[in-house]
Amino acid sequence: MAPNFNTSDSLYDFVVKNGNGVKGLIDSGLSEVPERYIQPEEERIKKVKTKRHDVSPIDLSKLKGPDHKKVLDEIVRAAETLGFFQVVNHGVPLELLESLKDSAHKFFNLSPEEKSLFYPGVSPSTKVKYGTSFAPEKEKALEWKDYISMGYTDDHDALQYWPNECKEVALDYLKLSSTMVRDIVEILIENLGVRVEESRIEGIIGMKMVNMNYYPLCPNPDLTVGVGRHSDMGTITVLLQDGIGGLYVKLEHNNNNHNDGEWLEVPPIPGALVINIGDTIQWCHWYKILSNGKYKSAEHRVRTTSTESRVSIPVFIFPKPTEKIGPLEELVKKEGVARYREVMFQDYMNNFFANAHHGKKSLEFAK
Ligand code: OGA
Ligand code: NI
Fold first, then answer.
1. Is the dihedral of CA 20, 26, 30, 33 positive or negative?
2. Vertex 254 angle, CA 281 and 351, to 5°
3. Is the Cβ atom of 362 under 6 angstroms away from ligand 1?
4. What is the C-alpha separation between 205 and 186, in angstroms, rounded?
5. What's the rounded Cα separation, in Å, for the pair 177 and 57?
6. Would you say the CB of residue 302 lies under 6 angstroms from ligand 1?
7. Rounded distance from Cα 335 to ligand 1 centre (Å)
8. Of 253, 276, 362, which is closest to residue 83 (Cα–Cα)?
9. Residue 215 Cα: closest atom of ligand 1
10. Is residue 145 within 6 Å of ligand 1 at its C-beta?
């Protein structure tokens, strides 16, 4: 029976509470974007005006050869300018990338009843969560996205609690990308002239989570967002996107650049992974970084598509929850002012997930 969406509440219950997600909405034959999904004018993503970030992906296999220094510079430069770059020869086999996209479709094609087994409260693990939008109870306009989030503790738990449709491939992905993650983070730190111990590196890449995002096709991409503008909270993010496109990143603060503030599309490149810098890097003392720091944790967002459903599969890398993060003491002394206070990563994270996506306001918490 076609659901009745006469009231905003009945829509909300159908999508958010009963496990249908945005996918259920589309599967019910809906042909118009419901009011609840219509974004205010300033948040809408207009396709006509945007440019593509057409830069060759960085070949990570060259880190081991005579071009080592050149590749290293490419990574640092990208982290300092756009905060986003793409990599190839990253250690994750291409067949695995294909299986990941397939398994994401498999999971989201399950019935609402099967997917809602992973709702918070009923999910067999607090680390595994199926949901829709980002923070539906806090958002005026909902995001056009369903997701499954799989926090990693150990292999045993992953294979026991993650959904059958995707647990093996997601775990392989997390593991096979971890050498690259460590290499990139080490390169970024070493470039600042900071020597850090192995255990410190472990601390800043010590928590990992694989998500699968599903953006159903949308009757009107001009009115909606797949993901509203936000920056990622953690250390870095590795993202696999399919061939559909729609990921946009904001170009900022590049001295005298007349393109400042412009949104660029990060185009799908077959076989490549997208890497982006997270918020933690902007204020955590290991990086000796001020708020107007060297590496960019850029705002990004996703436009929906009217023809096909898109999937993307990020691995989020965070510091361990108990790591203390805050501004570098010697910088505070020198400036006479601490722009950020020291907080435990866990507290910062709880704040981030308790609020709707809204640009970079999550950094305000540490002020
Ligand atoms: C995210 C995100 C982008 C995408 O999940 O944080 O920014 O392309 N995703 O799905
Ligand atoms: Ni993101």
1. positive
2. 35
3. no
4. 10
5. 16
6. yes
7. 35
8. 276
9. 10
10. no
CA of 230 to the centre of ligand 2 (A): 6
Pocket flag, ligand 1, residue 25 (CB < 6 Å): no
pLDDT value of residue 135: 85
Q: H or E element: which one contains 310? A: strand 310-318
Judge if the beta carbon of residue 236 lies within 6 A of ligand 1.
no
What is the Rg, in whole angstroms, of the alpha carbon atoms belonging to the chain? 20
The finding on whether 213 has its CB within 6 A of some atom of ligand 1 is yes
Give 237-278 pLDDT, tens digit per residue.
999 999 999 999 999 765 555 566 789 999 999 999 999 999
What pLDDT digit, counting tens, does each position of 155-184 carry?
999 999 999 999 999 999 999 999 999 999
Q: Which atom of ligand 1 is nearest to the CA of 312?
A: 10
- Give, as one character, the DSSP assignment of residue 42: G
- Minimal CA–CA distance to 56: which of 301, 272, 298? 272
CB 54 within 8 Å of CB 155: no
**Strand ranges in 31-159 using DSSP code E only, listed in sequence order:** 51-52, 58-59, 84-88, 128-132, 146-151
Distances (CA, A) of 125 to 132, 162, 163, 205: 18, 8, 11, 22
The tens digit of pLDDT for each residue in 49-76 reads 678 898 999 999 999 999 999 999 999 9
Which ligand does the CA of 278 lie closest to?
A: 2
Two structure tokens written together for 344:
């435990």
For the record, the structure tokens of 154 come out as 């150990």
Q: How far is CA 102 from CA 92, 108, 118, in A?
A: 16, 10, 19
Decide: 251 in ligand 1 pocket, CB within 6 A: no
User: Of all atoms in ligand 1, which is nearest to the CA of residue 314?
Assistant: 5
**Residue 95 confidence (pLDDT) above 60:** yes
